[in-house]
Amino acid sequence: MYADDILLIAPSVTMLESLIRVCETELQHLDMAINLKKSGCLRTGPRSDVVCGNITCMSASLCWVNELRYLGIYVVKSKVFKCSLEYAKKSFYRAANNIFGKIGRVACEEVTLQLLYSKCMPIQLYGLEVCPLKKSDLSSPDFVINRFFMKLFNTGNIDTVKQCQMEFGCQLPSDLLQKRRQKFLYKIDNINNTVNVGLLSMSVVQLLIYKISVHVCA
Question: Are residues 55 and 79 located together in one domain of the fold?
Fold first, then answer.
């Protein structure tokens, strides 16, 4: 029997241990156990570099990690809440190279770009509409797309790349991400269930305030 990933967020190590004790008790009632190999602790905030004491779980110590994966999003240790885009970029490159390797120069550019935007772009933008991204983070996906256009059209001129993108009607990831974020916020604003609205609002506040989180898989 498998359970979904659980994310525990707490303002201190002591409170985090209390939350873990509660999870242990509930999982024992369900005849389930915590998978320590897939569990870890991550600290964010001004004191993220300070060494913390070990947290015990099922008579074993949980490891403090520099990054963790939760629902496909990689959160990294930092002084502010920060997500890593490196894994998304690697997955995009892998999918794009597979497509380009299969069809190569046989298919026309329209077909290649259609496959790129329908199969590869969702991989790169997955879940980013809810992540706090800086301007430098937004330019990273754009760079990946521009490099693919350079390879496809055999050019190193960025002006030529922009002209090709305009002619084929291809938007940059930063523009697509902005639309996805607006759509996400619109859906939240139009939720009629007051309980769901309260939970969403609370989760946003916790991510901004709480400093320590643990990722537990049962």
Answer: yes
Q: Tell me the HSE value of 94 on the side-chain side, using a 13 A CA sphere.
A: 8
CA dihedral 131, 134, 140, 145 (to 10 degrees): 70
- Whether the CB-CB separation of 215 and 7 falls below 8 Å is answered with yes
CA 199 to CA 66: how far, in whole Å? Answer: 27
Domain span holding position 11: 6-83+212-217
Total domains in the fold of the chain: 2
CA atoms 69, 73, 77, 80: torsion sign: negative
Residue 118, burial from CB neighbour count under 10 angstroms (0-12, 13-18, 19+): exposed
Is 124 contained in some domain?
A: yes
What's this model's pTM, rounded to 2 decimal places? 0.72
Asked if 210 and 7 count as a contact pair (C-beta separation under 8 A), the reply is no
| Nearest C-alpha neighbor of 47 from the set 75, 9, 17, 77 | 77
Is residue 119 domain-shared with residue 38, that is, in the same domain?
A: no
pLDDT in tens, 97-155: 898 888 877 888 899 999 999 999 999 998 888 888 888 888 888 999 999 999 889 99
